[in-house]
Amino acid sequence: MQELYRFDTFLEMLDPLRGSYRCVVFDKKVVETFPKKSRTRIILDIDCGTLQIQAGIQSFGGGKYFSMIGKNKLNGLTYEMGQAIAVIVYLDPNPLGVEIPEVVEALLSQEDIIQRVWNQLSDGRKRTICHKVHRIKSIDKQVDTCVTFFEEERQKLVDKGKW
Q1: What's the CA gap between 121 and 131, in Å, rounded?
Q2: CB 8 within 8 A of CB 85
Q3: Which strand (E) or helix (H) includes residue 24?
Q4: 12-13 and 58-61 beta bridge pairing
Q5: How far apart are CA 25 and CA 33, in angstroms?
Q6: What is the per-residue pLDDT across 56-93, written as a single tens digit (0 to 9) for each?
Q7: Angstrom distance (rounded) from CA 145 to CA 118
Q8: Residue 148: pLDDT above 70?
Q9: What sections of 5-70 are H helices per DSSP?
Q10: How far is CA 101 from CA 42, 62, 69, 107, 128, in A?
Q11: Whole-structure pTM value
Q12: Nearest-5° Cα angle at 52, 48 to 55
């Protein structure tokens, strides 16, 4: 993996109105050096491999950016707010930042219309359907969710005159 930045910092927390997430904060000048600036997908390596998290970068305001660390990503580790951490930021080799579920891959290979819609989606919309499907256990419900999602996205493209 390509290393983008390395630094020591403190684990911070977004204010309760923003969701009380643990986060790693970056200065704007650091984010400006990343290949796609704030649109770069990254992997945070915290404390020399103790925790590795795929993440995006969001604006914090005031010339700062942050990446969130959800509680479910801590895997039982007890990182507290204000705790000193060593962070290495790597370029995520997966531009989506999430694995494409088997159901989505199968539909993409079998349905030309779904493939055509997929090719016109932003990475963010692709992540949305991947995350939705990963949360569903039933294969039938996964397929139904995908078909509904892709039909809605196709209709959006029709409405915009891009279909």
Answers
A1: 15
A2: yes
A3: strand 22-27
A4: unpaired
A5: 15
A6: 999 988 999 999 988 778 777 888 888 999 999 999 99
A7: 14
A8: yes
A9: 28-31
A10: 20, 37, 22, 10, 12
A11: 0.79
A12: 130
